[in-house]
Amino acid sequence: MIADSQSEGSQTYPECLVHSIQQYKPDSIYTKRKDVLNIKSRLLTLVQNPEYWETLTHFLRGECSKQKYDETIDLYLTTNETRILHNDLIRSILYNAHFAAVPPPGIPMPQRKLPDHINMKTQRPQKTKVKLFCSYSASDLGHIPSIEQLSSRVGYLTTLKVDNSALALLFSELKHYIISVLQQCTEIGQNNCENSEKVIVSPSQIEYVLSANTNGLHHLKAKLAARLGHV
To answer: Which is more confidently placed, 7 or 214?
Structure first.
């Protein structure tokens, strides 16, 4: 029942319903397990054919068709008592799986076993690479260079001729730049460490220096471009 005057979407319920909800307590049906072994033993005294039990097991595991299951049930459950016990057995299994504690005290968890005809093999590396490639999104694939782009880059590098003096200059400037970055990292480490002899340069310090010193990298590029132009 919805009240005539509602404020901010509030909803009013009958007092009897509110009282019943407040007084509700979980029944013992949700805290006790069904005795599956007792029901199974009673059914086993009436139905002892192994085909029935194998079909029931395969059906509960999803390894048997509904048609074969119905045919087996009609063949071996001929009395009303066996059908009732059969239904009680399935209900008790489902009940314990949903409402009771899993696993029950003192009973270990069963280990799943594959049928004998199934042979698990490791996937081939090529198949794994194909699956990994298929898992990429369109945005990820946009960053992957095509075969034409890779061939043009490789062709450019193979035909590129660099003067030895230019390489020496490049290595020299890169050496000075790396030394400068490491010096800044050691200064950060000395500020965080009392004993200067145990200063260790970490990747996080290098990343911090590089992110905070973008101007130095631009200066290095400009300096190299200017000096290489005169070589």
So the answer is: 214
CA dist 23 and 43 (Å) reads 40
Query: 86 and 11 in one domain?
Result: yes
Asked if 28 and 36 count as a contact pair (C-beta separation under 8 A), the reply is no
E strand or H helix that includes residue 59 = helix 50-60
- Residue 33: closest CA among 92, 84, 88: 92
Highest average pLDDT, of 79-93, 133-147, 167-181, comes from: 79-93
If asked whether residues 165 and 86 sit together in one domain, one would say no
How many distinct structural domains can be found in the chain?
2
Determine, yes or no, domain membership for 149: no
Same domain flag for 91 and 19? yes
- Per-residue pLDDT tens for 33-74? 778 889 999 999 999 999 999 999 999 888 889 999 999 999
Q: Are 84 and 42 in contact (CB under 8 A)?
A: no
Report the C-alpha gap between 200 and 196 in whole angstroms. Answer: 9
Q: Does some domain include residue 170? A: yes
**Residue 220 counted as domain residue:** yes
CA dist., res. 59 & res. 56, Å (int): 5
Domain that holds residue 188: 161-229
Structural domain includes residue 141: no
Residue 37 three-state SS: helix
DSSP assignment of 162-212, as one string? --HHHHHHHHHHHHHHHHHHHHHHHHHHHHH-S-GGG----HHHHHHHHHH
The answer to whether residues 100 and 1 belong to one domain is: yes
